[in-house]
Give the backbone structure.
Amino acid sequence: MLKQLRILVSGRTWSSSLRHCSGFVSRMRLVNQLKQDDAACAAALQTGSIFLFHRLNPLLQRIPNGTFRPATLHSTEVQAVLQRLGAEGSLLQDSVLIGCSEQNQAQFCLDVGQLDQAAVEEVCDGKFIALRKAFFLLTGAEAPLVAKAQALLRWHQTNGFCSATGQPTQRNQSGSQRVCSSSGIVYYPTMSPVVIVLVSDGKRCLLGRQSSFPKGMYSALAGFCDMGETLEEALCREVAEEAGLQVHSISYSGSQHWPFPHSSFMLGCHAAVRPEHSQLSVDHSELEDARWFSLQEVSAALRLQAPPPRGAPPPLWLPPKHAVAHRLIREWAERQSD
Ligand SMILES: NC(=O)C1=CN([C@@H]2O[C@H](COP(=O)(O)OP(=O)(O)OC[C@H]3O[C@@H](n4cnc5c(N)ncnc54)[C@H](OP(=O)(O)O)[C@@H]3O)[C@@H](O)[C@H]2O)C=CC1
Ligand SMILES: [Mg+2]
């Protein structure tokens, strides 16, 4: 029997065109529909859930098992919070669409930076936590959604004016675009493509660190793609610039949206160098250090569970599990062990 999908949006039913679709397809279609149809999106906002931010810091709640989750409030709860704190109810309209839950409920985010932070925290029984910290307190499934929400809010906050005319830009209801009120130029949220690569010489892998990293932490080499470059060209250039090596046998592993310091689209790859050409020539203006690490050293670092205590870092500390760098390093170690 065909699954009856009924998404009630203030009395409107979006069932007919989506009835034959799988859950995933219908969710994607719904989000696309809400991006294009301002009236439908405004209606979905009335029944949607909202992730709150304060000056781009997400609101987290501690749950009984001691872990954290992003506070997701129903739209009517947010309206009640705004009313209680004496804020304009129209603030809700600044919400930006971020997706749709498996229960087909539209998901939004809203920055309430103009309200008193402590007052919102008290009413909502949560804490606004800097994204860098929040990102690592959350589980795998929630962290990317919070990162996406913050990236969209940041983009709106920094794209209020047209770069061609200097005139204000107006967002659509979902926040998927902004349009210049004078020229009609349409702006979409942007990300910078970044290549990240784990280089191996067959026995060892190459990791580098920037001076801004926590003590002892090394990661895969990364760099922004230049205009006009392919992924492979950017990868070869970055490894040549930073480590003085020429790589071959490039293979793609996976990608990730990375919110720090702004939105990057990380494209994760593996690559190889011939053992006889593995002599490093590190550009110290880009990297504080880069070294070859053995499987034994990497495996020991992968086994570490908690962040190292301050002042006593282990010899090698890897990026957290959420990071695509971690995935590349783990993949390499697993292949070596095989
Ligand atoms: N998720 C993960 O696992 C990891 C993510 N990363 C991320 O990868 C990104 C890139 O790594 P990084 O080694 O710093 O990059 P690069 O090696 O490209 O060095 C950064 C420099 O590139 C220049 N640059 C060129 N294009 C851009 C752009 N679009 N935005 C910002 N700077 C640009 C800037 O130089 P100038 O200031 O001189 O103009 C900047 O200082 C970082 O944002 C980092 O957070 C890194 C490692 C792991
Ligand atoms: Mg780099």
